[in-house]
Structure formats: C-alpha cells, structure tokens
Please model this.
Amino acid sequence: MKINTTTASALAQPTLAVVLLAFEKEQVSGPSGLQGMLRRVTDKEFKGANKQLLLLHTAGKLAAPRVLLVGLGKRQKFNAEILRRAMGLATRKLRRAGLDHAAVQIRADLDGCPTPDAVRILVEAALLASYEFARFKVPDDNATELKSLTLCVPAGTDLRAVRQIVARTQTIVEAANYAREIGNLPGNVVFPSVLADYARQLAREEGLKCTVLNKSALEKQGFGGLLAVGSGSSHEPQLIVLEYRGSPDPGAQPVALVGKALTFDSGGITLKHGDKMDEMKFDKCGGLAVLGALRAAAQLKLPLNILGVIAAAENLPSATSYRPGDVVTSYKGREKRGVTIEVLSTDAEGRIVLGDALAYARERKPQAIIDIATLTGACVIALGSFIAGLLGNNEQLQERIRDAADRTGERVWPLPLADDYRDRIKSDVADIKNTAGREGGTITAAAFLEKYVGDTPWAHIDIAGTAWTTEERHYYAKGATGFGVRLIVETLSNWSTLK
Model:
C-alpha cells in the first residue's frame, strides 16, 4: 500500500472515497453543498456510535464520489484502540465496496491522541486490515486491495516528521504481516527445517548472523528437552539462532528474544482432542514473533544488540516419541548439570523446548531475556483471546512491556509468580515436573521456565489466546495475528539499561 501525506483537506482530494471520523451525536462537517445531506444522515441513519459505518455517494458535491462515515463513539470514552479498530473496519469496508484509493481526514481534536500517534495508529490499522492469507486459493479477480491511502493531517503539521512515522510504522507492520504469513502455513508445508530456511533467508536479506543446530549438533551439545519433544517426528528439531548487532558498542550485551516454534503440536503420546487440532499449526507463532521482531529491528537499525533463539520442533506420537513418565535432561551449557524434568504430559512440551532455548540464551550473558510462546490453554481461560499473560522476575522489564502494550494495542496483563506456584512443579523423581495440573497453569508453566534464567532479568509473554483468531476482528482477518512483533519492537525501540 502506498501511503501519502498532506495538510490539504481530505474533502478536496481526487480519490475514490473520503473517510471522515465522527464522535457520537456530534455533527459531521463538510462543504456547503454536502452539508445538508450530512445533516440529514446524522439525524437519522448515522449517530457516530463506536464501530458504526455508513458509505454515502457524494452526488458530485466532492472530488471523491464516496464518503465513508466512521463512528468513534462517545468522545469521553475515546482512546487509541477505538481509533485503531475504527480504521481497521473502514479499511475492510472500502475493500468490500471495491474502492482501492481513499483519503482519511485526521482530526485535531482527538483527545489523548495527538496527530503523530493518530498517524501511527491509522497506518497500523490500515496495513493490518489489508492482510489476508490467500496462498492456497484461486486468485479472485474481483477482490479489491487498498492500493493507496492519503493521510490528511491538520494544517501546520510537520509533514517531514509525519512521513518518518509512516515509514517506520510500515516497516514494523510489514514485519508483523510477514510473521502472519508464515504462521498461517500448515504443518505439511512448514516444519522445523523449513523454519530454519526462513531464518537463513532473513539473515541474508537483513545482514544478520544465523546459526542452526540440527539434530546431530543438538545431540552433541546435550539439548535433551528439544530432542525429546521432537523425537516422535521424522522432521528433526532445530535450534535457530539469529544475531543482530546494532549497538555502537560492539561489546554490549544483547537483549535475548526466545520463541517457541512447534510447527505442529498433536500433543504427542498425550494426544489432544481432534476438535480444533488443526489450529495447532499456530503453535509456532512465538518463534515467528521473534523472526518478525528481528526483521523490523534490522530494518529500523535499532541501536542495540539482539540475540534471537527459536526452539523449533514437531510434536507427534510414534514408536520413537517421548512418553509420560520419562525423565529428560535439559541443555546444561556451562552449568555443572542440566535441569532434569519428569514428563507427566507430552502435551506440555512448549516449556520443555523453551527450557533448552532459555538456558542457551542465558549462557550468552544477555542483559535481559524476553520469551514469547503459545504456552498454555490456561492463559486462554484466564484472559481470553484479547490479552496475553505477562510474568517474570523483573518489575522494571515487565513495566516496559506493559507501556509498549498500551502504545501498540497488543495488550498484556501481569500474573503473580509466587512461591506457592513454584512448589507445585517440584517432582518426586527429578528437579521439576512439566505440569502441575489445571489450577494456575499459566503461572506454574512460568515457574518452570524461571528455572532456566537464573538472575538474568526475564519476562515471559504467553500468547496462547492472542496468536491467532478464528473470527474476523476489527483489523485482523481469520488466522495468525502476528501478536508480539509490534509489542517487542516497541519495547526495544525505547530500550535503556535495566537498573
């Protein structure tokens, strides 16, 4: 999508449609020739309620043949997410009406949302809402893509600064859509070695260092957790390591991003129910959030070093699968011994592969670790499908992530990591067990991961409910959402040394 910027009024733009944002029960203004019609529809058909849309013909009263009225709801309840959702809905409406060029008027009176923020939010929503997964469909010749969008900002706005915001936002959202595209691919197309190929390609394109540990390397170095989880599949597990060096200090410690990438998760011997098992192609989305974040960081030239570690495996039942009751030894790195795990459920595999990846990241002595994973169904029960879980051992790091969540709309909510939950994962036969039952499942999973990070500042983001959607949402089509890419990039963009 081409995005233009101007201080001229949207009502004067020679485009196919003008998008006007309206608060509830407030009159929509327009040129004198159009004002009468706008007054009539706002009295009867359009109240400006949140999410309300009305597409009108302008009858030659404007350069554009259509006006799309978009409701923002009550002014006193307005916030950034309402604007983001409104633009997402508007983008879909334009496409379905066959309108591929549009202009949107950015109001100067969006309380709490100054023009620079409004520009970023509108671009985010338009680009996210424009993405649809169609790799395996016959091309639809009648489908309309929003090819250009003109942002009409208030007079006196610094257009150079606005264009920089547009370019930066496009880079980040395109990285999120990149993660969505791979995330939507099924398990017979993407398996661990294919994911490794995507990482290699990204490294070539963006100047990253890429190291991939295959099965023989994992065996030699003792990655017992990743090997166990991948043991039932003919597609061998992979540990994918990407390094971005953007700090002016070449010796600066990196920030480590760790992602779970189960390219398909059947549950293994502890087989999942068949209902919705097809959605387990999305169990790789934590690893893809790491890929997308590194892509954006490299293109934005963020001034810090980043280490990306992705644990990729396929969890299937077979004669060679790991079993309930097995004891698995995690990667020890420079430690005297690896953590031993009593496997009670082969479907609690994500924390096992993440344990290896976290231990590997920790031995690289990062200044902080952020891991992201579709880890627990318990998180979906606790927070639903709109908010991710957040846990960790460092309040300052968690607060930074929460601030980034507020700015991006990729919302998180903190859960308590207390000793009571740590006690629940103690095992009678090993150091820890990989499940403590249903109660507090998101927290006990984080307590398991905590064993691998030591004193390193660490935050864990559980995206089990937010990584994909089975229904069309305001700015998301059905499928992978790319959740975490924008959140992590925003966190890293404002990075400073943790105290």
